[in-house]
Amino acid sequence: MTEGKKGSPKIALNMSMVKTVMWEKGPDYTFERVKAAGLSYFELSQADMTDEFIDQVMEASAKHGVKVIATSLNYKPLFGAGAKGFDIERDFDRIIQANQRLGVTYVRDSLIPKICIHSEEGYYKAAGDLNHYGRLLREQGLKLYYHNHHFEFERFRGRTGFELLVEYTDPELVGFEIDVHWIQRAGQDPVTWVKRLAGREDMIHLKDYRIHFPDGEPSPDIFHREQCIQFAEIGEGNLDMKAIIEAAVDGGAVYLPIEQDQTYGRDPFDCIRTSVDNLRGMGFGRYL
């Protein structure tokens, strides 16, 4: 299996799309179906990284030809100490051991730290700590990445929290795994951000952005809620995915994980197939 490389990335899958399948049926079943749906590269997230689970992942990876490319961790977890997965402050040694066993280079902080909520100072603190842990991880051959949502685009004296993270983290120590759906939902342009972070984004989340007028009788609160916005299969929404992927390739992306937080009743593996088929139709089959 060839690795992704700069200028020739590999399209992957983020576990959030099949997390309940992984929880209920485990890595063997999940990886078999991911491979059958057309993908061979996989990001682990929202999983309890026990030794038993890691053993199962390694066995299933070898059996089905699915390579794990990244794992996830929490820093100052938004939902408290009970969050699934590793806590970088509590589990640092275990993070090193697990990723070395899996042969993984990338570790990703996948959710805004709690200290950043409504706090400019929290972003400065987070940037400093990410630099600290990024240096320690680099010494062990790992690369730390931060994954955004739209929360980070709250403004503080004219700059967004995300801009503060970008400006105050060291490019040698901290990368960014931007999620193009959440960039769009934050009122920003995904292509602009892909280009702006070129060189710091080995991984970019491909997630489309669909408008769907809600079913049922319309009510006035439709103007005040995000109920018209959906996550979509790649090519089934409104984002210019061709331009996004071309900018990602030009910027040196190594992996392009597909993610769809909700599938609205569809089998997630059918959604993956739709995304894969559409990506092939766009001319990106060489990246699968």
Structure description:
With 288 residues, the chain is of the alpha/beta class. It has helices at 19-36, 51-64, 92-102, 120-139, 161-168, 180-185, 190-196, 241-250, 268-281, and strands spanning 10-14, 41-43, 67-74, 86-87, 106-109, 143-147, 155-156, 159-160, 174-177, 208-211, 229-232, 255-258. It is built from nine helices and twelve strands. The strands form three sheets. Strands 1, 2, 3, 4, 5, 6, 9 and 12 form an eight-stranded parallel β-sheet that branches. Strands 7-8 form a two-stranded antiparallel ribbon. The N and C termini lie close together (11 Å).
- The overall strand count is 12
How big a fraction of the residues is strand? 15-25%
Report low-confidence residues grouped into runs of 5 or more. none
Arithmetic mean of pLDDT: 96
Distance between the termini: 11 Å
